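Question (not urgent): is this output format expected?
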Amino acid sequence: MKGNRLKRLGTACLAGGLLVVMSACSQPVEPDVNLVQQKEDNVRTVSLFSPMEKTDPDADNVARNAADKTIRMAEEQLGITVDYHTYTAEDHQDKTYDDVAFDRARNDVDDLYLLNPDTIRLLAEEGKLMDLSGLECAKNLRDVVKAANTIDGKLVAVPQEVVAYGLFINQDMFDRYNLKQPETPEEFLECCRVFKENGIETPVGANRWWLETFVLAQAYADLYNGGNAQTEIAALNSGKSKYSDYMRPGFKFLKKMIDRGYIDAEKASVSEAIEGEGQDFRDQKTPIVMAYWGAANSDTAYGDLDFNMQVIGFPTSRGPMPVISITGYGISTKAEHAEDAMRVLDVIASDKALQVYSETNKVISPSKNVEVDCIPALKPLNDRIKENVYVLGANASMNVEQWGNTCLIVRKLLNGASVDECMAEFDRLQEESLKK
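Got this back:
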């Protein structure tokens, strides 16, 4: 079995320096070095850029282990070594993973990239990602996955999981104050009021990445679940409807949470996901956080808690609403090892590999042929998804990219912008899209 060679980007050397994990000979001999070089020249490699768990690169991370298992399957089946290059920002002042991934892909540094939805969209529009629709694994993808990652008629990214976001709640604390799981925005605010009045300083733990899930859930609950999605999206793309009209209720809701002290806007604006609010949730100081499905299974996040945790949808007029964001592996159009990268992706996204990945990580598979039982904590969220009730956090058919833009505009709200100023930013983005 080939061992993956791990290379982690240091935040102090973003221009291209690598911290390479390697072993060294104590007394190097020239002929031996030549032999090693000859062996290296015969090794087929694929370069993969992906995020690394920041708190401890060597931690027992379920999500990373699941991906590693599928990479090993590809290495053994194809006789290829996959070289990992990784990066995670140290804090809010560093470049984000998306920034670094975008720079590397733009400059054709790697073969294979694990990308977030907004980065997929931007790179695809620049022609930096290959069309993957011819892969065998693409035939088994769920329609929602294909829709999310098809841009200009090309399937530009293939995921290993469908990432569902929800509210992680401390059910014990809800029970203590006789609170039912909130389904609507009004019910959610009432729960926050009760917690606040009973000495819970910050009812909702937040970070600078995921508050947009509240907004997206409320903005598009009717669009995606009212039976008229394509017509409404066409109206948005033509300028007949305004994105700001959809977004305004969610932003007003967040502003109300900020004004009432239910979230700490100052802390959220500089906090990394889970690291900013995670400890308070684990210590039962904060009863509510937002996170992605896999965080419920990972001991580095919320997979090993001393209380009853439940994961529910975000509050909307249509009840609790999961928000789905589909990441994916993309291949550079100028990949040095393009053919081998395609072969690797076809293996790690095959039904066989996705079964292993999904069983290890207990996540929703992108393949329509793979189903895995979820842990009890995720059942409320999973029940809604099985009913086909959810909102897409990113949709390639919308001319204005949603996931990244909403995240950035929410940060403006956290830093003091008014709701009207935030809506003006959506209007500006829409006007720009109409000129293209």
